[in-house]
Design a protein that fits this description.
single chain; alpha/beta; Rossmann fold; 3 domains; three-stranded antiparallel β-sheet; 8 helices; 7 strands
Length: about 200
C-alpha cells in the first residue's frame, strides 16, 4: 500500500508556494494523486524523492582560455561540494565563454537534458549574467532547479571581460567594424586607471 502525503507538504519540502504545486497537479504532473472527500490533494511518497537521489550536473565556466586553471579549480570545488551534500553527480560540464553569450553549446545541451534535476554552479554569474530568474522559472516547471553555492559575486576580472564584450558589441553595431575593439579596450584601461 502506498503512503500518501499532502500537496502542501510537497510544496514545503521543495520550497515552492502551494499555488505552484497546485498548478503542477492541474497540469497532470501527478496522475497518481488522490483527492479526499474534503478536497485535500495527497501525493504518493515517491514524489518526495530527496535531491540526493536526483541526477545532478555541475556547470563551471570562465570567460577566456587564460583562466583555464580557474576553470578546473572551480569544477573541483563544485565536485567537493556535491560530494559533501551526498549528491549523485551525473555530469561535470566545463565551458569557456562570456556570461553574456547566450549561445553556449554545452550549457544549452545541459538545459535540454531533462534527466538532470539539479544544476550546481559556484556563482550565479558563472551560469548567466542576465535572465537567470527566467531560466529558473522555466526549469521549475519541469521540477528542475539551479543550485547556487555562493551567492556573492567576486570575479572582477571576469566582469571586466564581459564589460569589454558589451562595449565591443555596441561599437561594432554602431560603426560596423570590429577594429573598434582596440579603442574599446583603451577606454576600459583608462576607466580602470581613473578608479585606482
Amino acid at each position: 500500500m502506498d503512503y500518501y502525503i499532502k500537496l502542501s507538504d510537497y510544496a514545503k519540502k521543495f520550497g515552492i508556494c502551494y499555488r505552484t504545486a497546485w498548478n503542477r497537479y492541474k497540469r497532470g504532473q501527478f496522475p497518481d494523486a488522490i483527492v479526499d472527500e474534503t478536497g485535500h490533494i495527497s501525493l504518493p511518497i515517491k514524489h518526495f524523492v530527496k535531491d540526493e537521489d536526483a541526477k545532478v550536473a555541475i556547470y563551471a565556466r570562465v570567460s577566456s582560455i587564460e583562466n583555464k586553471s580557474n576553470l578546473d579549480a572551480q569544477a573541483e570545488r563544485l565536485v567537493n561540494y556535491c560530494m559533501a551534500r551526498g549528491y549523485k553527480i551525473d555530469k561535470v560540464v566545463k565551458e569557456v565563454g562570456s556570461g553574456l553569450n547566450d549561445e553556449r553549446p554545452k550549457l544549452e545541451s545541459l538545459l535540454k537534458d531533462r534527466s538532470i534535476k539539479v544544476i550546481v554552479v559556484e556563482h550565479k554569474d558563472r551560469f548567466s549574467r542576465f535572465g537567470l530568474n527566467y531560466i529558473q522559472q522555466l526549469l521549475e516547471m519541469d521540477d528542475r532547479r539551479i543550485e547556487i553555492v555562493n551567492s556573492v559575486s567576486d570575479d572582477r576580472d571576469d566582469l571586466m571581460q564581459d564589460f569589454v564584450s558589451i562595449i565591443t558589441s555596441f561599437c561594432a553595431r554602431l560603426y560596423g567594424q570590429r577594429r573598434n575593439k582596440r579603442r574599446t579596450e583603451q577606454l576600459i584601461l583608462e576607466l580602470q586607471n581613473e578608479n585606482k
